[in-house]
Amino acid sequence: MNTKQLLRSLVLAQALSFVAAFAAQAAPEDYAFKIISNALHPGDGAIISVSLTDMRTNTPVTDAVIFTTRLDMAPEGMEGMTTPVEAVASDIPGQYQFKADLTMAGNWRFQIAAKVQGEAETVQGELILGVQK
Fold first, then answer.
1. How would residue 24 be classed by pLDDT, with cut points 50, 70 and 90?
2. Are 108 and 129 in contact (CB under 8 A)?
3. Residues linked to residue 49 through DSSP beta bridges, in sequence order
4. H/E stretch holding 27
5. Three-class DSSP category at 37
6. In the chain, what are the domain boundaries?
7. β-bridge partners, 33
8. This prediction's pTM
9. What is the pLDDT of residue 79?
10. Confidence of residue 9 (pLDDT cuts 50, 70, 90)
11. In what order do the strands lie in the sheet with 106-115?
12. For 26-131, CATH number?
């Protein structure tokens, strides 16, 4: 094998390595948010618990940085009816908690976006909370 062929082989090997590494990287679809709170009722300071799971391994994601949340009543046709959401500490790995004033019963949409360590793309979720009287 001459120098030119060796150089081509090295470049090809490096390119294949890059493609394999890129293909092995997770996609945002490999993660899922899920509502943990079961009994939500109207009132001030309701705690909403959400888990984030790596679906490839079915393990909780413990180090996500939640940077966007929105809570509104879009499922009831009232997208403009929003309420502030405040992150609160959680002692459970992979579980993220939020406090919000749920002003009325009905279905609320909870939109959430997070950065997961080591992932280039943002993980997003849209969950429906059933708030009952």
1. very low
2. yes
3. 97
4. none
5. coil
6. 26-131
7. 52
8. 0.77
9. 95
10. low
11. 78-83, 65-73, 106-115, 123-131
12. 2.60.40.10
Asked if residues 111 and 124 have their Cβ atoms less than 8 Å apart, the reply is: yes
Question: What is the β-pairing status of strands 85-88 and 78-83?
Answer: unpaired
Q: How far is CA 6 from CA 9, 11, 15, in A?
A: 5, 9, 14
- Look at 15 and 124; give whichever has higher pLDDT: 124
pLDDT in tens, 28-46: 789 999 999 778 999 999 9
d(CA 88, CA 83): 16
CB 108 within 8 Å of CB 128: yes
How many CA atoms within 13 Å lie on the side-chain side of 103? 9
131, 112, 101, 94: CA torsion to nearest 10? 80
Q: By the 8 A CB rule, do 73 and 107 touch?
A: yes
Q: pLDDT tens digit string along 94-105?
A: 899 999 999 999
Q: Please give the mean pLDDT across all residues of the chain.
A: 86
Contact (Cβ atoms closer than 8 angstroms) between residue 129 and residue 40:
yes
Instruction: Take residue 42 and report the two structure tokens written for it.
Output: 């109207």
